[in-house]
């Protein structure tokens, strides 16, 4: 990871001037509450230390110019042309599954979405870099979207507003990019709090921090397998949930309580019954997890994670052999309270709740056993709950060679 001071230096080399700001937007890992966000339910993610950074300076015209350190290439477009485009119209900056460069679509999509809401937009030029693993279920796309929104906020001088910006970034991904994600990823990237998970009501967008007990850590376990979210069955699962809600006569599956489920499941045929059962039970588990964290009932919290994985595997059918393997290995280790897949599924990452004092031993054991069973190369790392998105003036940054702020 290039630190912020080095990003400033590289910006100067490419654009011939110093940037005025550096914006940062973190990825996220979801502790519990999976595939509930687009069902207007409850989720409890946390922002992670891995993030997307953009060094930027304002322009005098209404153009956006961005270079990527990670993917190479440059995107340049007039704000007004993108703002006037229609999603799905074949605009050159809308994603094509035949092209490998998707990152410009997220930047253009946020531009388009902010314009739809009437935010004042000013041109800027930026250098983007990040270390959120791509396709791992840690929401690299939302980090790019939120960083782009904050770049516009910095260049035009307006104050970011969490719920409205989260909705704008979600709209960019839903309509411009074409992925039917919920609101969780963007909102926690904006609202993350150090040392805390964030309980989000995805209907009202009310949110509050829930402290993660200091004696445990969340270990992120990257299986080394990837899935293309737009090409996966993610959108199919969303459609199935919407159909289940229609059959039950409710606005969203959020409106079915766990106590009412025994009567409701009699109405639904398969596979809608199992899809709905996961969502309804996962909402219930998420609220139970809040109580467990506040009561420091770690064994109970761990059991809820295990139940979440089982539901995602059997009812929602979004796990994979690699995810199931690494979760089983993790759960067998001393000091592990529970583990589950996280993210959209079909590959990517799992998480484990582990005694802090045993985290290093845990990671070494899981890596070795997973490698032995699968011949895949995992990556395990501990990420403390981190701050949400920030706008930093270059004057605030440490000099090159220092750590990230």
How would you describe what is shown here?
The chain is α+β, with helices and mostly antiparallel strands and 405 residues long. The chain is 39% helix and 21% strand. It has helices at residues 4-15, 79-84, 103-116, 140-156, 162-177, 184-191, 234-248, 261-264, 272-294, 298-314, 321-331, 359-374, and strands spanning 21-32, 42-58, 63-68, 74-78, 124-130, 196-201, 207-211, 216-222, 336-341, 349-355, 379-382, 390-393. The strands form two sheets. Strands 1, 2, 3, 4, 5, 6, 7 and 12 form an eight-stranded mixed beta sheet that branches. Strands 9-10-8-11 form a four-stranded antiparallel beta sheet. Helix 3 packs across helix 4 and helix 5 runs antiparallel to helix 6.
Describe the structure concisely.
The protein is an alpha+beta fold.
Features:
single chain; 405 residues; globular
How many β strands by DSSP? 12
- SS class: alpha+beta
Q: What series of H and E elements makes up the topology?
A: HEEEEHHEHHHEEEHHHHHEEHEE
Please estimate the helix content.
25-40%
Low-pLDDT sequence parts? 399-405
| Termini Cα gap | 13 Å
Number of helices: 12
What is the makeup of the main sheet?
8 strands, mixed
How large a portion of the residues is in β-strands, by DSSP E?
A: 15-25%
Average per-residue pLDDT, rounded, comes to 93
Radius of gyration: 21 Å
Quaternary state of this entry equals: single chain
Overall spatial form: globular
């Amino acid at each position: 990871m290039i630190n912020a001071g080095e990003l400033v230096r590289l910006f100067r080399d490419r654009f011939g001037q110093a940037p005025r700001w550096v914006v940062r937007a973190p990825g996220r890992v979801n502790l519990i509450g999976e595939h509930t966000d687009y069902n207007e339910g409850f989720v409890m993610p946390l922002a992670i230390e891995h993030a997307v950074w953009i060094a930027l300076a304002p322009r005098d015209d209404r153009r956006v110019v961005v270079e990527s350190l990670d993917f190479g290439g440059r995107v340049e477009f007039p704000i007004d042309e993108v703002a006037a485009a229609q999603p799905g119209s074949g605009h050159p900056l809308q994603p094509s599954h035949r092209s490998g460069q998707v990152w410009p679509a997220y930047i253009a999509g946020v531009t388009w979405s902010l314009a739809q809401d009437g935010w004042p937009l000013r041109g800027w030029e930026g250098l983007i870099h990040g270390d959120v693993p791509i396709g791992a279920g840690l929401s690299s796309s939302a980090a790019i979207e939120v960083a782009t929104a904050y770049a516009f906020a910095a260049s035009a001088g307006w104050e970011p507003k969490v719920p409205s910006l989260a909705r704008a970034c979600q709209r960019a991904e839903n309509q411009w990019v074409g992925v039917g994600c919920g609101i969780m990823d963007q909102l926690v990237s904006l609202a993350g709090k150090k040392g805390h998970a964030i309980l989000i009501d995805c209907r009202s967008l009310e949110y509050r921090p829930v402290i993660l007990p200091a004696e445990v850590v969340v270990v992120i376990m990257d299986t080394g397998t990837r899935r293309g979210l737009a090409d996966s069955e993610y959108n199919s699962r969303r459609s199935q949930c919407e159909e289940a809600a229609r059959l039950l006569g409710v606005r969203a599956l959020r409106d079915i309580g766990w106590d009412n489920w025994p009567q409701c499941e009699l109405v639904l045929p398969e596979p809608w019954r199992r899809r709905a059962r996961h969502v309804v039970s996962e909402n219930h588990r998420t609220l139970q997890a809040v109580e467990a964290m506040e009561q420091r009932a770690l064994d109970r919290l761990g059991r809820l994670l295990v139940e979440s994985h089982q539901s995602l595997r059997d009812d929602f059918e979004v796990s994979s052999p690699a995810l199931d393997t690494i979760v089983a290995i993790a759960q067998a280790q001393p000091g592990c309270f529970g583990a589950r897949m996280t993210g959209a599924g079909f590959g990517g990452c799992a998480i484990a709740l582990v005694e802090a004092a045993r985290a290093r031993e845990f990671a070494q054991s899981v890596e070795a056993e997973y490698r032995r069973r699968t011949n895949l190369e995992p990556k395990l790392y501990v990420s403390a709950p981190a701050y949400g998105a920030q706008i930093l003036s270059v004057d605030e940054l440490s000099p090159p060679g220092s750590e990230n702020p």
